[in-house]
User: Fold this.
Amino acid sequence: MRIGILGCGAIARNHVAALRATAGVEVFAVADTVPRRAHAFAAEYGIPHAYADAEPMLARGLDAVTVCTPHGAHEAGVLAAARHGVHVLCEKPIALDVAQANRMIAAAGAAGIRLGVIFQRRFWPAAARIRAAIDDGRLGPPICGGVVARFNRDADYYAEPWRGSRATEGGGVLMTQAIHHIDLLQWYMGRARRVTGRCATLVHQGLIDVEDTAGALVEFASGAIATVQAGTTFRPGRGARVWVADAAGRVAGVTEFPEGVGSAGPVPEGSGDLPLAAVHEHLAPFHAMQVADFVAALREDREPAVTGRDAVRSLEIVEAVYTSSRTGTTVVLE
Assistant:
């Protein structure tokens, strides 16, 4: 199976490793809008072909492509793959907004291709056990739950030109960090129906034009209620916690501490800050599991573990928080 990679950032390195760990896969080509970066990446990782544009790469008869570009370029990458009939695995968030995501999902459907989206924290054993417990009845349907995400991001993190800008990143802590945990929350609790939220930039003023602090109340179609609190303002960071409880008072949760490490236990004492490279290293095995599932889905002609339609649900919640914060109203989702 020939697979190409679109984008040459740090995440693309994880894709190369994950794809090469999957039997029968050839990392055939890489494309990036900065030609020297594409050629340097190809040389470093022994990839046969490098391109300055997705179109000629996709025209090479690829079976699939992974989209590792900044958020603002996800739509263009997926639509290009659809035009060429190439299956696509896209990094999170699926898009800058729900309208973009829906266009991507529609294009993939019309082209008859599979569209998967990376949410590798679903593959943490502790996270998967909660979903299994709900499915087999050991944990009843959740009636309440929550996300608390407390991360540390500094000026060096936002030095990349596309980070911290609503036009290119789509949002701040909710869109880029906490969306992983909002994805887990809605995976357990179902579709959100009403969202009330507030966002602010309380520490990184002048550095970013997106939120570094957010809070929300989310009501689900089932009647369940959850809260979300997230920030990139913690020194040091204290990781994240996602929890749900049923009508019998049984509680299940997954803790991320230090960042990138998931477990069923409480947050331990000590500093939680790791270099982002170390965070990615901890997540790499679960990233590889999701990539392997995507490849298996193509071979078995089935949907991948996280589809485009799955991925848009967490984006709907994030976008609703932004709208609620801007308008001062509760947002009702269709």
